[in-house]
Automatic annotation (TrEMBL):
Residues 279-372 form the M23ase beta-sheet core domain. Residues 1-22 form the signal peptide. Residues 24-100, 154-223 form a coiled coil. InterPro entries: Cell_wall_metabolism_enzyme, Dup_hybrid_motif, M23ase_b-sheet_dom. It comes from the Bacteria. GO terms for molecular function: metalloendopeptidase activity. The keyword Signal applies. Keywords: Coiled coil, Signal. This is Membrane-bound metallopeptidase. SUPFAM superfamilies: Duplicated hybrid motif. Pfam families: Peptidase_M23.
Amino acid sequence: MRTSLRIIFCLTTLLVLAFANANESRTKQDLDAVQKELEKSQKSYQQQNERFNKLKRKLRDFELQIAQHAKALSLTEQGINENRQQQYTLENENKSLNQQKIRLQKLLAGQLKSAYMTGSHDYSKMLLNQEHSATLERTLSYYDYFNKARIAQIETLKEVIKQLAENQESLEQKQQQLNDLFKQQTERLAALKASKEQRQNSLSQLNSALKQTQSAIAYLKENEQTLITTLSQLHEQQSESLVPVELIGLRSKKGKLPWPSKGRLKHRFGQRKHAGMNWKGVVIAAKTGDNVKAVQQGQVVFADWLNGFGWVIVIDHGLGYMSLYGHAQTLLKDVGDQVRSGESIALVGQSGGQANPGLYFELRHKGSAVDPVKWCK
C-alpha cells in the first residue's frame, strides 16, 4: 500500500513539474513575442515620427517660399505704384513745358514780325542819316531792347526743348522699368501659385501623418506650449541689441484700439478649442494678402515661423503690453523695427498648417493673455 502511494506521489510530482515547465516555456515564448511586437511597434512609431517631423520641416520650407514670393510681390506692386506716380509727374511737367514752349514760340514769332515790319526803314540807312538824331537814338534803343529779348527767349526756348527731350527720355525709361516690373510680377505670381500648390500637398501629407503618429490635441498642445515659451522668453529677456524706444503701453487705449484686419471673428477669446484647451486670442477670417496693421505704436521683438502658428510677428508696446499676429503669409517688418499705429506689418495668410486664410491675434499683459474684444473698438 505504501509502495503504491509512493508511486502515485512520484507520478503526480512528475506531472506537476512537467506542467510547470510547459507553462514556463509558453510564458517565455509569449514574452518574447510581446517584446518583439513592442520593438516592431516602437520602430514603426519612430519611423512615422521621423516622417512626420520631416513633413513639418517641408511645410515650413514651402511657407518660407510663399513668404518670400509674397513679400517680393508686395515690393513689386509698390514699385509699380511709385513708377506710375513718377510717370504722372513727368507727364504733367511735359504738359507745362509744352505750354511754355508754345508761349515762347508765339512771343518770338511776334517779335520777328515786328522786326520785319520795321525792317523797311533800313537799319544801315538810319545809321548814316544824322538829321534826326533823337529819333535815331530811340530807334537804336528799340532795336537793342528787342534784340536782347529775342536772344533771351531763344535761349529759354532751347532750354525748354532740352528739358522736354530729357523728360521724354525719362518717360521712356520709366515705361521700360514698368514693363520689367510687370514681368517680375507675372513671374512672382506664378512662383507664388506653385509654392501654394506644393504647400497644400505637403499639408495634406502632414495631416495624414499626424493621424498615424499622435492625436491632434497633443500636437496643438505642443504648439501652444512653444508659443507660450517663446512669449515668456520675450517678456523676460533684456533686448540689449534693440535700440531703446519710449513706449507707453496700451492701458489708456483700452476699448479704443483698431482691429489689425477687417473680417468677422471666426474664433473668440476663451472659447473651447479642444479638450483642455481654450483660445488665448481671436481668429479673424480675412482674405489672403490683406494688410495686417499694428494696433498701436511699438517695436518688433519677434518675427519668425512657429509650429502651428506659421509666420508670427510680436510687437512690444511697453509697460508689459504685447500684441501678436500669426498665420501671416509674409512679414513686412523685422526684429528691431519701430512701427506706427495702423502701419502695415504683415499680410494675411494661412501659414502654420491652416486650411483657410485668417489672422490669429493675441493681446498680452505681463505674459497673460487678455480678451482683444474688450480692447479693440
